[in-house]
Amino acid sequence: MSNTWKGPLERVDRFRWRIPETYKPGMRVPGLIYVDEDDLDVIREDQAPEQVANAAHLPGIVGASLAMPDIHWGYGFAIGGVGATRLDDGVISPGGVGFDINCGVRLLRTDLQEEEVRPQLEKLVSQLFRDIPSGVGSKGAVKLEKDEIRQVLEKGAGWAVEKGYGWQEDPDMTEERGCMKEARADKVSDRACTRGLPQLGTLGSGNHFLEIQVIEEIFAKNVAERLRLSKGQVVVMIHSGSRGLGHQVCTDYLRVMERAVRKYNIDIPDRQLACAPFASQEGQDYFAAMAAAANYAWANRQVIMHRTRQAFGKVFRRRPEDLGMELIYDVAHNIAKVEEHVVNDATLRVCVHRKGATRAFPPDHPDIPKKYSDIGQPVLVPGDMGRASYLLVGTEKALHETFGSTCHGAGRLLSRTAARKAVSGTAMQSELRDKGIIVKAASRGVLAEEAPEAYKDVNQVVQVCHEAGISLRVARMRPIGVIKG
Amino acid sequence: MADKADMHPRYEVLEHTADVGLRGFGKTPEELFAAMAVGMIRLILSPDSQVSHTEERHIEVEGYDPESLMVAWLSELLFQIYSEGFLPGGIQSIKIQEPENVSADSGGYSASAVISGEKFQPETHELVLEIKGVTYHMLKVERLDESGWDLDPEAQWYAQVILDI
Fold first, then answer.
1. Does A417 touch chain B (CB under 8 A)?
2. Using the 8-state DSSP alphabet, how is residue A120 labeled?
3. ipTM of the complex
4. With the C-alpha atoms ordered A139, A141, A146, A150, is the resulting torsion angle positive or negative?
């Protein structure tokens, strides 16, 4: 189905390629793609650059329609897309966020070294697999009353901590402190709540995972030391989102936006970019509902992390506190946020859409934890299960160039069907085992779909971000235990 | 790929890097909507999951145009499956209605269907795919003129959707 994209890409500098505003008549700003020259052909293999150009049509978009180096073909925005719109005359678009609202990643540290975990690894992976429901339609981690879900939506990670799922300081180490204050539970439909009710604290399926990882390499010793991380140390990465609740919120509001596009006479080249003026009732309603779904996702990852700590505690017969299992940080990579940025020398409040992109704020930014004000915001980049994941930090350059954004992962290369054809899940499981990686998955099919071959090399994606200066490498982690949906 | 053994319903699965596409055909809009539903359900359920017809549910959805009606229809089925735990095994009846006066705002396209199936049971059913949503990206619901279709002269309606997975 994919055709090579033949539009114009003009070189700006080593890692930036511009789609000029003149490419399509309705473009309001240029497109700007971060990519290494050697990967230009890969970028042109599908229609992702066209989607970058399409997003440049959104009313009120400022600067440029951006794409991070892990860009690939999505719907509406490209995955890896970033677009900022003015609040007064710009729009908000669910197509710039996606169905999995606040899909994101968190990383927690441990005091354990690889050699201490190895002998218990099999047991640990089984314990985690038992304690954290995963797979298609997984449910049953938390008993939630119908009225309670409204509190989850408005309080986010804080709700989970209040209920005993975690430590007081956890929300402080979470983007937005685990709660977007703009959230309004009454803007989330009963249907969405019904879908979310049984799923809190579950991993889900697809590319979501929980990984026990070992720090394989340190790139910035001083930053790593500040985070109390060193080579050989065991950490845990959790990748999940807002589950069915977020999917339903997106579905509900796409319909609202369809109507809004007609009502406000908005001209867009792709129906999936349906949007409403940010300041309109429709725009505000979506933003409040999206924020509520984002809060659900933070509560979700908080509960999963709590269960993870407990599982470690059971297996190592020590309190999680004594294992040093502190949350390093939690980032969202499918979200829209109101942020202050400098655009054309003027400070402006804008709605930043990040669809498969991670916030990467620099040192001293007011929106990052005080604890990190000297090093910058930690950025978590999950890779595929055979290779590596990364810990980076945000930079001043990102704030200037990308509305404080960087990549979010490896980016898919093969469709899921193609991956299934190329790889056998069972063979891959034993191959990974030979490499010392224990994998447990709710379904064998998912294993094949998520095979390393299906993804771009995360090392290259991160290298571009690092060299372009929109985030800096701190540490690389390799998985030793994987739970997949 | 289209299920050759079963010419009704007619659908095929399309490749898309991060998502999955579905294309369906029908002699009538009703046949088309039924084909797309069956195609999507077969993506979600493992091939050896047998769904019996112990319960019937009446479903009604609306849309501004045939495309948004298709999104509403498939989204409703996703809700039934993932939220209600109701697995559709077949479509007993379906009626698509077009509005008498087409205007930009009012819409007025509707689908009314009776689907039969049963509640999800972990012992007999396996869900192999979680579809997050039905996108409007590359969405098409079209009537084909006779010359426009060379694979199947009987397919007069055609649809295409990208599903986010």
1. yes
2. G
3. 0.88
4. negative
Residue A400 annotated among the catalytic residues of the structure: no
**B positions 3-62 inside 8 Å of A (CB):** 13-21, 44
Q: Chain B residue closest to A54 (CA)?
A: B137
Please check whether residue B67 touches A, CB under 8 A.
Answer: yes
A381-439 pLDDT tens trace: 999 877 899 999 999 999 999 999 999 998 777 877 788 888 887 888 888 888 899 99
Q: What would the CATH number be for the domain defined by A10-413+455-484?
A: 3.90.1860.10
Domain map (residue ranges) of chain A: 10-413+455-484
Q: Tell me, what's the pLDDT at B146?
A: 52
Nearest CA-CA partner of A270 in A94, A33, A72, A403: A94
Fold of B10-164: Archease, Possible Chaperone; Chain: A; domain 1 (3.55.10)
Start-to-end Cα distance in chain B: 18
Query: A213 pairs with which residues across the strands?
Result: A235, A479
CB B107 within 8 A of CB A262: no
- Residues of B within 8 A of A250 (CB-CB) are 132-133
Tokens of residue A6, six digits: 């033949």
Q: Which of A410, A407, A478 is nearest to A450 (CA)?
A: A410
Could you tell me which chain B residue has the CA closest to the CA of A204? Answer: B130
Q: Is the pLDDT of residue B4 over 50?
A: no
Average pLDDT, chain A: 94
Higher pLDDT, A419 or A366: A366
pLDDT in tens, B39-74: 999 999 988 889 999 999 999 999 989 999 999 999
Spans of all domains in chain B? 10-164
Burial degree of A418 (CB within 10 A; 0-12, 13-18, 19+): middle
Residues ≥6 apart with Cβ < 8 Å to B11: B2, B3, B22, B23, B24, B25, B35, B36, B38, B39
- Provide CB contacts within 8 A for B18, sequence distance 6+: A72, A73, A74, A79, A412, A415
Q: How far is A462 from chain B (nearest CA, A)?
A: 20
Query: Rounded to 5 degrees, what are φ and ψ at A341?
Result: -140, 160
What are the tokens at A272?
């999936």
